[in-house]
Amino acid sequence: MKYLTKEFYTCELLSYANSHVRKSKKAEQKDETFYRRTYEKIYAIFEGFSKSCDWYRDTEVELKKIEVYVNEPNITLEERKRRIEFKKMHEILYDNRNKTVYHFDEKLCAEQFEERNRELIAIYSQLPQEILSKIADIRVFALGYASAEVKKLLRPYCAKLQKTVKKIKDKAYSETNDAESSLTQELDLNEYNEYLLMGIEEKGGNIYLKTENNDCLLIKDGEILEGKDKVIFPYDKSKPNCPWSRIIYAELHRIDGKFELHFLVENSDTIGKADLWYLTISGTEIIDIN
What are the percentages of helix, strand and coil residues in the chain, rounded to 5? Predict the structure, then answer.
C-alpha cells in the first residue's frame, strides 16, 4: 500500500498555505492594479534570484573583485587575515564550479515564473470552498498575499492538515523501517526524499537505480511494477535550466516475501512544468553498491 501518493503531496503543500501568504488589506478585494504591482514585485525577486545562479557569473571577474577587496589599503592586520580566508574559501568554490558562463534568458525566466504561478494556483484552488470563497483573487493568493479573514481561516485548517500529514508520514516511515530491518544492509530510505533520480538500468535480472552523488541501489531479481515507460532526466548541474527528475517520497514495504520500493517522482522540464509519476520496483534484496 502506498501512503505517500500524489494526493498526499497536494495535501502536504496545502498544509503550508498559511505560511505561504502574508496579511494584506489590499487582498480583501479583487484589484487588477494591485495584482499587477504585486506580480511585478514578486517577479523582480524571482528574476534576481535566478540571475544570481552560478551559471551566469564569470568566476574570473568575481575573483578579481575579491582580490581588490583583499588588498584594500588602510585596514587592520586582523581584517586582512579575515579577507584572505574569505578569498581562499571562494577560490575553492570557484575551482569546483563550471567555468562556462551562460547568457541569462529573460524570456525563459518569465515563462518559469508563469509556470510557478500556474502550479500554485492549481494547488490552492483545492483549498476548502469555505476558504476559497473568501479569497478575492486566487492569483494574488498564489503570489503570497491574503486578507486577514482568509489568514484567520487558514490557521486552524493548516494546523489540522499538518497533523494529518504527520500521522500518514509517521505510518509510512514506520513501515519502511520495519521492511528495512529485513534487509541485509541499512539504507535509510526515509532519507531519500528530495534525492535526484539519475537513471535506471535492468541487467542480468537485476535493477540498478542511480541517484545523485553516484549512489546506486541494486534491486536483486528486480521487476518494475510502475513507471517502466517513464523517462528519467539525469540532472546536469553544469547546464542552466536542465530538466531533472527527483524523488519526492520513498517508502518500502514487505509483500509476499519480496520488497516493494515505492517512489513518488517529479519530472521537471526547462520551464519547471511538473509531471508526477510513480516508480515501483519489487525484488528479493536491495543493496547500496556505491
Answer: 50, 20, 30
